[in-house]
Amino acid sequence: MNIRRKRKISALVTALIFLCPWDKSADALPLTDTVYTITEENFEFIFREEVHRVNDYYRKERIGMGFGILPRFSFWLMADYLHRGIADTREDVMGDMLLKLWYYAGDYAGNTLHLGFKLQFRIPSGPDAYGGGDWSSLALGRHELEAGVAGKYDILPWLFLHFNLDYIFRQGNNESFYGGFHINPVSADTYRTLLGLNPFARDAFLSGPRLKNDFMNLACALNTDGIYPFIPYFEASWSFRLYRGKIMEDDIPMEGGAVEPFLLSLGGRWFFTRSFYVGFYAVVNPVWNDNFTKAVFGIDMGVEF
After folding, report:
1. Residues 279, 17: contact at Cβ < 8 Å?
2. Could you report the per-residue pLDDT of 99-140, keeping only the tens digit for each?
3. Rounded CA gap, 191 and 183, in Å?
4. How do strand 159-170 and strand 215-224 relate by DSSP bridges?
5. Residue 279 region by backbone torsions, left for phi larger than 0, else alpha for psi between -120 and 50, else beta
6. Structural domain includes residue 189
7. Is residue 223 part of a domain?
8. Using H for helix, E for strand and C for coil, what is the string for the chain?
9. Which structural domain, as residue segments, surrounds residue 145?
């Protein structure tokens, strides 16, 4: 009897892991951040391999690790590696690194609306887009701070809308990015600039001249777990600058500069277990901007331990 009972329990656990439709619709997507939060004390490994069509072909690899620190708080550290060419690469360089902090705020509207907040720091380890060259659509090589909200709305029990609203603070040319913050308690500048948050202080982080090259990103996605373990999705993303005057970045083919890209993405993921997936996707730029990404073809995988 004990052996039979153990077999039943083992079969039930296997079915739960491999067959049941766990809520994997919340996993992060190529263009859209989601409300995905790593389980406390767990960690996630992610990998992406992309082919970018600009004027030439490029390949970008992203490797990342994420950690569940608290029930509602996670962070990820990601690094890019760039190649000119696809198989026979002619140049290989390190790309930028990203540190993403995520806080899950909670569930609202009868448990159909799920919201959270993120901060993402770009660590400039890649080629400098301001210095010329043709890596500007794959790496910036400057500091950025991205602050935003991500949400998920359950349209139907099997159909989900994801959305982002992000503001990106970007380091300008010859600008000390974090120098706009003033935190020395014995310095008068700390109080005059309100720690750097006074928009009327010229040397503050939020001063008008510093904000001219900042931009916003709007993104949304639809996906469904109606045919789980395969989860297809569709995405749209638009980046635009609020300041409409002339700035130096207008001559650089990058987001917030010479390009305000509108991107569309179609893809899908197969979940081998509730914590392991492999996916594919394609991104297209219908505007076909010169010297900017025109199309991306990628594969990705993620596993949570």
Report:
1. no
2. 999 999 999 999 999 999 999 999 999 999 988 778 988 999
3. 9
4. antiparallel
5. beta
6. no
7. yes
8. CHHHHHHHHHHHHHHHHHCCCCCCCCCCCCCCCCCCCCCCCCEEEEEEEEEEECCCEEEEEEEEEEEEEECCEEEEEEEEEEEECCCCCCEEEEEEEEEEEEEEEEEECCCCEEEEEEEEEEECCCCCHHHCCCCCCCCCCCCEEEEEEEEEEEEECCEEEEEEEEEEEECCCCCCCHHHCCCCCCCHHHHHCHHHCCCCCCCCCCCHHHHCCCEEEEEEEEEECCCCCEEEEEEEEEEEECCCCCCHHHHCCCECCCECCEEEEEEEEEEEECCEEEEEEEEECCCCCCCCCCEEEEEEEEEEC
9. 22-172+213-304
Please report, for the domain that includes residue 115, its CATH number.
Answer: 2.40.160.40
Count: domains in the chain: 1
Q: Is 126 among the domain residues? A: yes
pLDDT digits (tens, 9 = 90+) for 254-299: 888 889 999 999 999 999 998 999 999 999 999 888 889 999 999 9
Answer whether residue 94 is part of any domain. Answer: yes
Against a cut of 0.70, is the pTM above it?
A: yes
Residue 14 phi, psi (nearest 5): -60, -40
Cβ-proximal residues to 1 (8 Å cutoff; 6+ apart), any chain: none
